[in-house]
Amino acid sequence: MESLKFLNTDAEPSGGEPSISSLDNEALSSESVQQLLQEVEASFQEDSTKQQPEFQMVAPTAGFCVKTDAEHGGKYFVNLCHSDKVPSPPAIADEELALAIAHMDNSRFNVPMSLGQEHTEVDKAGKPCIAYDVIINSDVFAQLDEREGMRDFLLELMLSYIESKHGIQLNRHYTILKRRKVMGVLQPQWCRVKTKVRELSKPVKLMEEQTVEEGVPTSGVEPIYTLLKEPETAPEFLILEVELPKLTSAATLALDVASDCVRVHARPDVYFLELELDHVVKASATMAQFNRRTQVLTITLQVNQLA
Fold it and tell me: Is the pLDDT score of 10 beyond 50?
């Protein structure tokens, strides 16, 4: 691109060179100059687009406050807030949402959320406690009481997100406070406001999968389980629900999936299940979540239609 030279209109013309007032109109309207001006204008427009902020400082609106504790001790509060500046998740049909809620599967319905910094507060007994502020889209917040099961689903996703960010284990026997909407003072947060949902809130692993080592002896009580087919005829998915009432987290769980077999082991020798499948599945497409509130492990297996 050619460079523009700006003339100093305050200087006296010298050496016989023409002043800006002596430039004829024909030169200013020439094709080359007009093209150059168009290129400069396009350049400014491009720079303006690039400079549009992906993040903005968002002042959250109070929703409700969740009280719980951690496995290592200590009292925790989570202020669930909302703002119309936080992107909303893609639209989802009631049937698909019901399936995601039933199996606590956030890969089917991932809600963007912004998590603020941990802050220390004082509870009503005068003791220190930890609080977090989480912001979701205002339309999603309005649906929490309108769509069955959505509140529990979102709270599980929220607590799992906090755990993954701060390396803590939070109790799922929580309480939603009736007389207090927030713990402490809500602070504005830098939130992504462009609709890049996958960058704002990536899916949280609700259970870490571990491969059982070959040759390692396994034992334990066989847990109660249910194997569902979705749909019942010519299933595309097998959904295995395993009841594990002695577990409080997935930390001791090991999961091994082959094309025709599933093995679940809760160490050390608490539970052990080895189940042969009547359909060939894609082991690499397996999804698993452990719900610490219901103490149920849900394993979703994709049937290999080509087998």
Answer: no
Cα–Cα distance for residue pair 132/185, rounded to 1 Å: 11
The mean per-residue pLDDT over the stretch 254-274 comes to 88
Report the DSSP pairing between strands 281-291 and 296-303: antiparallel
Q: How confident is the model at residue 38 (pLDDT cuts 50, 70, 90)?
A: low
Residue with tokens 């491009």: 46
- Sign of the Cα torsion 120, 123, 128, 130 reads negative
Q: How far apart, in whole angstroms, are the C-alpha atoms of residue 242 and residue 95?
A: 23
Structure token pair of residue 142: 């309005």
Q: Which residue has the tokens 């700006």?
A: 6
Sign of CA dihedral 273, 274, 275, 280: positive
Give the residues across from 114 on adjacent strands: 135
What is 188-215 written as a DSSP string?
Answer: -EEEE-SS-HHHHSPPP-SS---PPPTT
